[in-house]
Write a structure and sequence with these properties.
The structure holds two protein chains of two kinds. By secondary structure, chain A is of the alpha/beta class. Helices cover about 45% and strands about 15% of the residues of chain A. The chains are: A alpha/beta, B mainly alpha.
């Protein structure tokens, strides 16, 4: 028994050492004038096969053409996308590690208190290539034809509307957006937090919730085309092509959700790397294959270069912080 | 016969050399990753996903689908040989499969797993073919209250999972529920049992947990014995294939497992894992000799292995008829189809019959290929048991480490696996069982989530579990089962079993 325990300790020790070595393997060289000279790791914050993943894979695939080096897409799912943030933040700023930049992991998560990084100053925001589209939908047999009708009904029936967003109210951009609308209209919804857009789709089709508030993909839109679901509003200025007459929150209330889909690097990237990426980015967003894929996913290309994106973030970040603080205070009050 | 016409259409697309190659590649890769612990179908499919963008849509779904059901075939191999579940769905196969191997019956165990998988796989395709659309619409009626009652039923089955002391089993179950609580609260987003360790925000992964609890602990346990004498597998390997008695014992478990797996596979969330546990519980409950379970009962291999394979067929139903993926693997398939511009949804069968019937036909062909691929391999696998332990054990540890790392590319998962390895070792030293803990770990968070969502829907009223027909049905069966445990006569019978084993 004693001897066995010793052996086990040795094995555990060996494995831990092995694991640590694994982590610190670093092939980086000091200067790299011909950047890029080896494959680039790209961390994606959501699971393989989803809208986010497919869009980023398509981006990597197209960027490869212009950078001349392949990408290694790695799905690092978890903790509201912040694991990717941590990985990128702690990586060497040599231009061989980038990550997906989606609304939640960079803007919302640091503000909600449980994040390992407290603001966006640890990152280099490279650019934005698309925006998420968030429709608010009801079942076709629901009594409400427009967003106004739904709000009127909700006013008479507090907590009667059961809305489902992906994730918890105070730590997703969808929750931030819908709760702002609630405040403006002075109505109260019931939140049924589900984990993914496909769970939300099956919940609304099965009649378990009344309002769908998640991302859109081609199979969700099938139901709209079939006349089984009806879009009442969009949470942002971005709309699904063909449904432009449906109002957006921007038009209704004058605010929009933060829904960027972009690329993130560590702080302190060399100038030649940044320049190369600026050029590549501008080319990728115009590439017909990439534009086609994006349209097919109903997530149209929206391009912001490095300067524009940074300006936008500087503008939106404090505002988002205020709203989240308010929501957290409200939740804290409810807990008491 | 419309079905036959459609099937003909499907087969006419399969028997093209290109698609046959994709099908074979899929099931071959699937078997391999199934055998390797930790590396599951999700990992392999996400690596191969971009490669399929260049192929035809039918080719890509045939290959990716093949990886999925192929992995279910392969998953049982390491469970039986070295007590390491290759897949989460093969955890229960460890219980009796490994015991069979220790008694020199690794061949029949592997054989019945392969045949059972084949039969169940084929039956589930027939189900997929004939009754997919109506079943899919029933699946939609499963909301949080229905899940809650289903989970209650599942946790009640847990009572039958234990082969030793019921108190110890319940202790392990509660422990499993607590471990399952780790991570972010789904409703408020606040962290639970995270202790400031950011990697714990998303909870503890099922694969590293299970590999540690069963696999690593097995290696630790054997190290002690190896030092004394090499006698883990007491008897010599006998025959390679199941005999007539094995077949008689397994026929009904295979049938029951197939139906159960198919039905649970349609429902979102861990169909394959839950159905394998449920099948084991049912077999043990209705068996004439429940005392043999946990000591190498072939029914305990045949039932669960059939159930997890049948669940794969069921899982295709919501994807292909509703466009709703019931699990991560199906979400990957959805992504692959969408990249090709094919949109799974209510109109897929009419608008893209080639995709639907092509998948059905490819599954017939793929299951046949898997059987042909796996039967000759059995002879090879049992040779693994003859590998000297000083080579085998480091290899097992190496594969487990690689597998744990590959899931999220995270070294933290390796640490999790090792911690549960040590824990599992201690648990087994002191006769605490791992299986109830795993089931509670899987079901606990789902149960909690379903309960909270239901109560949100009903504004706090518990009546929601009784005024919806499906939910009410599940609750009533659960209550009846619990009562049956309390009734003294039955209780005596139940307690008689653990006493024998103690």
């Amino acid at each position: 028994m004693k001897r066995g325990a010793k052996e086990i300790l040795v094995i555990v020790g060996l494995v831990v050492t092995f694991a640590l070595l694994f982590q610190s393997v670093d092939l980086a060289k000091a200067k790299d004038p011909d950047y890029p000279t080896r494959p680039i790791n790209f961390y994606i914050s959501y699971g393989a096969g989803g809208t986010t993943d497919l869009m980023f894979r398509a981006f990597c695939d197209t960027a490869k053409k212009y950078l001349g080096q392949p990408f290694v897409p790695i799905n690092k799912v978890g903790a509201a996308g912040t694991l990717v943030g941590v990985t990128v933040m702690n990586s060497k700023p040599d231009g061989y590690t980038f990550g997906s930049f989606a609304a939640t992991n960079v803007i919302i998560a640091p503000l909600s208190g449980e994040s390992p990084y407290k603001d966006i100053s640890n990152f280099t925001l490279i650019g934005n290539f698309a925006n998420y589209v968030y429709p608010l939908m009801v079942k076709a047999d629901a009594p409400w034809r427009t967003w106004k009708e739904l709000i009127e009904w909700a006013r008479k029936n507090p907590r009667g509307i059961k809305v489902s967003i992906t994730g918890a109210k105070s730590n997703t951009s969808m929750g931030v957006c819908v709760s702002q609308a609630e405040m403006k209209e002075n109505v109260e919804f019931t939140y049924i937090p589900l984990k993914s857009s496909s769970e939300t789709l099956s919940a609304i089709l099965g009649g378990h919730i009344t309002l769908y508030g998640s991302t859109v993909d081609p199979s969700t839109l099938e139901y709209v085309k079939e006349g089984k679901l009806r879009i009442l509003a969009f949470m942002d200025t971005c709309k699904v092509p063909g449904y432009e007459s449906i109002p957006s929150f921007q038009e209704l209330y004058g605010f929009s959700i933060i829904n960027v889909m972009g690329v993130l690097g560590p702080k302190g990237l060399p100038d030649n790397v940044l320049k190369k990426w600026d050029d590549t980015f501008a080319k990728v967003v115009k590439d017909p294959d990439f534009v086609n894929t994006a349209n097919r996913m109903y997530t149209p290309v929206v391009y912001m270069n490095r300067t524009e994106l940074n300006k936008y973030m500087a503008e939106i970040y404090p505002k988002a912080g205020e709203i989240i603080k308010m929501l957290q205070a409200e939740e804290a009050k409810q807990k008491k | 016969m419309e079905v036959l016409d459609n099937l003909y259409l499907g087969f006419s697309h399969i028997f093209i050399l290109e698609n046959l190659i994709y099908c074979f590649l899929g099931v071959f890769i699937g078997t391999l990753i199934g055998v390797l612990p930790g590396i599951g179908p999700v990992g392999a499919m996400s690596i191969l996903l971009p490669a399929t963008f260049k192929t035809s849509p039918i080719g890509s779904i045939i290959m990716l689908g093949g990886i999925y059901y192929g992995a279910m075939y392969g998953g049982s191999t390491t469970s039986i040989l070295v007590n390491i579940p290759g897949e989460a769905a093969s955890v229960v196969t460890c219980l009796d499969g490994y015991q069979m191997a220790r008694h020199g019956r690794a061949g029949p165990a592997l054989g019945i797993a392969a045949f059972g998988s084949f039969i169940a796989g084929t039956l589930s395709i027939v189900g997929l073919m004939l009754i997919a659309p109506p079943l899919a619409s029933i699946a939609l009626r499963f909301g949080p209250p229905e899940y809650f009652s289903l989970m209650c039923l599942g946790l009640t089955i847990l009572i039958y999972l234990a082969s030793g002391s019921i108190i110890r089993a319940l202790m392990m179950a509660v422990f499993g529920v607590i471990i399952g609580c780790v991570g972010q609260d789904a409703e408020t987003g606040s962290p639970r049992f995270v202790f400031g360790i950011y990697d714990l925000m998303d909870g503890i992964g099922l694969a590293p947990f299970v590999m540690g609890l069963f696999g690593i602990s097995e290696v630790f346990l054997n190290i002690e014995q190896v030092l004394k004498e090499r006698n883990i597998f007491e008897t010599k390997l006998k025959r390679l294939f199941p005999n007539l008695q094995d077949w008689k014992d397994s026929a009904m478990p295979i049938m029951r497992g197939s139906i159960l797996g198919f039905l649970l596979g349609i429902l979102p969330g861990g169909g394959a894992v839950i159905s394998s546990f449920a099948s084991y519980g049912i077999e043990k409950k209705i068996s004439k000799h429940p005392e043999k379970f946990g000591k190498g009962a072939i029914e305990g291999v045949a039932g669960p292995e059939s159930a997890n394979n049948s669940a794969t067929g069921g899982a295709f139903i919501p994807l292909l008829t509703l466009g709703i993926p019931p699990n991560v693997v199906m979400a990957l398939l959805l992504g692959a189809l969408m990249m090709h511009g094919v949109t799974p949804g209510p109109r897929l069968i009419q608008e893209n019959p080639v995709i639907f019937w092509g998948v059905v036909a490819s599954m017939y062909v793929g299951n046949g290929m898997l059987l042909l691929l796996n039967l000759p391999l059995i002879g090879l696998w049992v040779q693994v048991l003859k590998v000297p332990y000083k080579i085998l054990f480091p290899l097992i540890i190496l594969f487990c480490v690689i597998g744990a790392y590959s899931i999220n590319n995270s070294t933290f998962d390796i640490a999790i696996m090792l911690i549960f390895g040590v824990l599992g070792y201690l648990m087994r030293k002191y006769n605490f069982e791992g299986a109830p803990m795993v089931l509670a770990f899987v079901l606990g968070p789902m149960l909690e989530n379903a309960l909270r969502l239901s109560l949100l829907m009903s504004d706090g009223s518990f009546l929601i579990f009784f005024n919806r027909p499906i939910a009410a049905g599940g609750m009533i069966v659960t209550i009846l089962m619990l009562i049956s445990c309390i009734v003294p006569v039955i209780r005596k019978k139940r307690e008689a079993i653990p006493l024998e084993e103690a």
